[in-house]
Amino acid sequence: MGISLTDNAAKHVLNFIAKRGKGVGLRVGVRTTGCSGMAYKLEFADALGEGDLQFSSHGVTLLVDPKSLPYIDGMELDYTREGLNEGFKFNNPNVKDECGCGESFKV
User: Fold this and answer.
1) Residue 27 and residue 49: Cα distance in Å, rounded?
2) N or C end of the chain: which has fewer CB within 10 A?
């Protein structure tokens, strides 16, 4: 399955990489933390990492480490604006529960 971006998220990522002047894509993963157990991590990647799994969506290369993939497989990443707030929204079909603050989840 893999992971994907909405068109809006892809435009945001491509614009940011262009402003940075470098980058091969977006690294997406999870880490253990928070009140529900796991949290997403996002960072712009300047190089491929050993063992990275690669997915392409709307012209953006998404890099995922093999340990994170089972937790985010099938996820769609969106970029939204709601009032003064804007940011990435994780549409993850594997999530069974989320904490009240929205910072962590469990599968």
Assistant:
1) 10
2) N
